Each structure stands twice: as structure tokens, then as C-alpha cells.
Amino acid sequence: MPQNIIFVCDHLNGGGAERINLELAEEFINNGYSVTMLLLDGKEQGMEIPEGLNIVNLNIKFNNSLFRNKGKDISDKDRKLIFDLECELDPVLTVISYAFGYWLADCFFKKNTWLWVHGDLTNFNVFKRVGSKNIFSYLNEYRRSKIEKKVFYKLFNNRNIIVVNEGLVDFYKEFSNPYIVEFIPNGVSERRFLNIENEDIDKEYDMIFVGRFSSEKRPKIAIQAFLDSNLKGKMAIVGDGILKEELVNFVKDKNAENKIIFLGWKKNPEYYIKKSKILILTSESEGFPLVISESIKLDVPVVSYNSSSGIEYQLSSGQLNQGLVEKNNYKLLVNTIEKIYMYPYEITEKDKERLSMKNCFEQFKRITGIN
Q: Order of strands, edge to edge, in the sheet holding 279-281?
């Protein structure tokens, strides 16, 4: 009989954290394990489900923000459902992932249960949170920060934690008193690239941005950097979000509608990455953005602000660090875009292997102690 593994995830409507959950689950299935994924909201699934993955819709809805106690009650009925599933499956490993799923940790009793953290869920530096706002904003944010600290400690205290970048290890040790916290770099699935990795695809775009249109991802900086560079072709924008209207108007104001191409959200962003000469990231903060590994896998150089240890890790081997730019050094960002466009750095098979799902899977097995 195959050994059972449980994954817990909020939903499968799209996103990097959801994709890495599916791809790691698939890797376990391909290696002889039986995997069941519990979804807080499984009504709509906008992603391809791996063959053999068992899906259970818990239909649990939490209200309010992640680090607020209000709206996080779990009914006795839901607790019993989870308890019965755990007893029935008797998993050798349970992985509770992004992000409201962490509130279900108390419902699991098997020792080998891990909370998998995919990025910066919060920070407690009040000055960073308020920026240059007035004293009233500071005091309000200070109060919110104190509340979040207490809830953060409650969620992660005495837990087994896996983080996706080394910079988060000390953060969780300082603020949550974990039982153990380990770093495992994410990886990308080989299967997803089989159809296009060796396909001869024309380079339609000089540069591409892939991600949410949010203040954290800062797509406007990416667009401005492209326009300020000496690149003469087109830039592809793959994604969607609350800043879409602002970005579209920004491009119109620059009279750049023929250069900046909004493609919307795509289920297969790797195809558009392959059609591009450079991928750019300009985020304020990140966890372990998989789009970097995806781009490297497709032999497309990456230019990125050094916004996290997860980014630095992915661009730390061979010549890849030529695309790593000091955070918020805009002039250097533009210069690096021009340099990498003219003289792309070499991407080797060794660079790709260390960013593979196989590597991620093997480290999961080693750290969690399963056979």
C-alpha cells in the first residue's frame, strides 16, 4: 500500500504558491505516494489537476485578514471532518500551505505536520509599513502591528515550519518560537516544460513582466525601466490585478500602447516567457518567485532587484548573478537591462538542475524524514 500524504491549501484558482503545491504533490505521486489535497475553497479550480491527486473541498471560509483572530472560528463539524480524514489516511506527512490554511493546524494531531510558508506574510517594522505618513498613521500601524505579532506567535508557535528563502528563517525564530524552521528552495516541474523547452519559438518580445498588478510587485517600475532603456521592441505584460487601470493609463500617457502589450492573466505564462529575450522583476519584497526558475529553465535571462534571499538564491549560480540588481537602484536596473539584452549570460544545465522540482522533492523527504 502506498504511503499517504496530505496537503492543505486555500484554493486552486491560480498563483505561484498554488502551482508549487500542485507540482510538489505531483512529484510525490510520481514517486509512489498517495496524495490528498484539502482545499478550504474547492468550488472553482482554475489550474490543471495532476492525475491521481485526490481533492477534498472543506468549504471553510475565514473572514478578516490573516493575522486577526476575528472570523477564524472552526466549527465542531469541520474539526471532526478533518480529524476523521487524518485518522482514515494516517499520513506520513501533512503539509499545510498558503495561507489561511495555517489556521487549521490545530485540527491535525500527527507529529509530522509542517507549515509551508511561501513568502513574506507580514513584517513588524512599523516605519516600513507606514512610509512617510503622519504620526496618526504611525500610531495606528503600531497598534495593528502589536495585534499581528500576538496572532503570528499563536499561529506558528511550536510548529514545524518550512520557508522558501533563508531570510525568513531568523524572522520566524525571532517572532514565533517554532519547534523547528527549515529552508527548502522551491523548484519547477520538468513536465510543464516538455512541450516548449526545445521548441523553436520566435522571440516576439524584448522583455516580459509576469505577476500580479500590485503595489508589492511594482509593475510600473518595470514598464518605466523598459521605456527608459535603449530597447526598441515590445514588452509583454502577463498578469492582472487592482492596478490594471492605473497601468493602462500610465502607458497611454507615455504614448507607448504599441510598445507595452497587456496580455492578461495566462494559465501558461511559460509560453510567453519563451517568446521573450529578458524577464524582469522589480518587486518591493518577495518570497521565492517561481517565475525566475521558470525563466532560467527556458534559457531566458532574468534581470531582478535583489528584493529577497529567495531571489538571490535563484540567481546565485554561474553567470546568473549578472542579472541581480541592488534593490531600488533604478539607474543600475536600466543599465543591466541594456547589458543583458546585448550580451545574455550563459545558463547551464547545472543552473537549471538546482532549481528543479526533483531537488525540492528530495529536500522535503530529507527534512521531514519520510522514506
A: 260-264, 235-238, 207-210, 279-281, 302-305, 324-325
What is the share, in percent, of the chain residues with pLDDT greater than 90? 76
For 128, counting Cβ atoms within 10 Å of its Cβ (0-12 exposed, 13-18 middle, 19+ buried), the class is exposed
Of 260, 214, 208, nearest to 238 (Cα)?
208
Long-range contacts of 246-254 (CB under 8 A, 24+ apart): 246/220, 247/213, 247/219, 247/220, 247/223, 250/220, 250/223, 251/223, 254/227
SS3 121: coil
| pLDDT, tens only, 119-151 | 888 888 777 777 666 787 778 888 888 999 999
Radius of gyration over alpha carbons of the chain, in Å?
21
d(CA 275, CA 208): 9
Q: What is the pLDDT of residues 235-284, one digit of tens each?
A: 999 999 999 999 999 999 999 999 999 999 887 889 999 999 999 999 99
- Distances from the Cα of 362 to the Cα of 19, 51, 189, angstroms: 18, 21, 13
Domain boundaries, the chain: 4-187+356-368, 191-353
Domain 4-187+356-368 homologous superfamily, CATH: Glycogen Phosphorylase B; (3.40.50.2000)
- Domain at 191-353, CATH homologous superfamily: Glycogen Phosphorylase B; (3.40.50.2000)
Torsion of CA 310, 156, 108, 96, to 10 degrees: -20
